[in-house]
Amino acid sequence: MTVMDTCMPPGPLTVADLEVMPDDGRRYELIDGMLFVSPAPGTRHQKMVLQLGMRLEQVCPDDLVVFVAPFAVQTANDTEVQPDVLVARDEDLTEKNLPTAPLLAVEILSPSTTLYDLNTKKAAYQRMGVVSYWVVDPLDPRLTVFELDEAGQYELVADVKGDDAFDAERPFPVRVAPTDLLGRLNQSR
């Protein structure tokens, strides 16, 4: 995870500045005008994104949609993020992006993004009003779940490891066990 500041205009960036970023396999995100660049993700990360996306899609109600990155959540002119997996209301989507908070945002940790996902991005999702924020650790299979409380602050509601399962109610009922998200990789590594 790097914060890019060379060759960029002075001051906070806008979503328009993201349109000139290179198509180089990296993820470019903007939070409060600050650019964050992360490298292409690894094998375990991508397997978990795929498995979780499929699991959510299998039980997703008709009025909701599941997307995996890259897909832009652009809630302000100076903020555009791309959760690894998200669930949103179908009616909230545009042809280009999601201009409002998703119901669920999921980040699969990578060595280069762990602090960013657990701090900067978590705070951004909380400010946006993302009701459920899940963080998945692919190295030590673990699912940590935060949900907004009545005061609009994230509260830890689950922390499961290995084969233990989390029975989500938000944004819809689904059972998730961290090791299941590795699929066949779980047996081979």
UniProtKB/TrEMBL annotation:
Keywords: Endonuclease, Hydrolase, Nuclease. The keyword Nucleotidyltransferase does not apply. SUPFAM superfamilies: Restriction endonuclease-like (SSF52980). The keyword Nuclease applies. InterPro entries: Nuclease_put_TT1808, Restrct_endonuc-II-like, Uma2. Residues 17-173 form the Putative restriction endonuclease domain. GO terms for molecular function: endonuclease activity. CDD domains: DUF820-like (cd06260). PANTHER family: SLL0198 PROTEIN-RELATED, SLL1222 PROTEIN. This is Uma2 family endonuclease. It comes from Kutzneria chonburiensis.
